[in-house]
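Field reference: "sequence" (input) and "structure" (output). Example, Sensory transduction protein RegX3:
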Amino acid sequence: MLVKYHLVGFPMATLEAPPHSLQHQEIPPSHRILVVEDEVSIRETIVLSLQEEGYEVYAVDDGRDALALLQEFSEDPGQAAVDLIILDIMLPQVNGLDVCRSLRFGGDNTPILIVSAKGSEMEKVTGLEVGADDYITKPFSLKELVARCRAMIRRQGLAGNNIAPFRKFRDLVLYPQECRVLMRGEEVSLAPKEFRLLELFMSYPRRVWSREQLIEHIWGIDFMGDSKTVDVHIRWLREKLEQDPSQPEYLVTVRGFGYRFG
């Protein structure tokens, strides 16, 4: 069996699938993954592994092409968006961190998994702080990579089950697909992590979330920073949303447990 994959900026590549290929198994509707990696051998290995799991895979070798392809998808109503981006940091033209910043600044909340040879704590923190959802260090296990992709897409799917044109609570309205928030009719400017926190809270009103649960959902399981970062982001949200941040009506502290919305 010959496997072909979409490779923007390169000729169509062909790879021979291993004997354990899923060619005779029934594969569920495909999720789309974009791989942004400039090392050919790593890129092709990742692509083939993901295709073996039934994913539809696009691959590019630099950040500029990645942004161009995502822009093309967003402007074409006949094209489905990608469900996950696997992103290297060290890329020609536009590096991975700048790709991540650009997407988040533009309101794109597609899950991003950074794959990088830079494995220091500071590098991981930086990647997560600019908007990545997870971080895996080279060299890595392909099984672990696929498992992380599966988990991230699954979490995104669970969130997607709750997507509505808007969510409203009292004077607060959130538009998930527009990444927009209105408080008493006035637009509120939120950073990506603040928006995603608020969206999660409003998707599950009155559910109590621990710091650890919020970190796993918003920052990813490999977050290396202090759990107090949750408190900082909650404080920032209260300052932007609450009439009296010291007596919150929306983001409520449940002493000894965590936080809830409403």
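Helices lie at 40-52, 63-75, 96-105, 121-129, 142-160, 192-203, 211-219, 228-241.
Residues 142-160 form the longest helix (19 residues).
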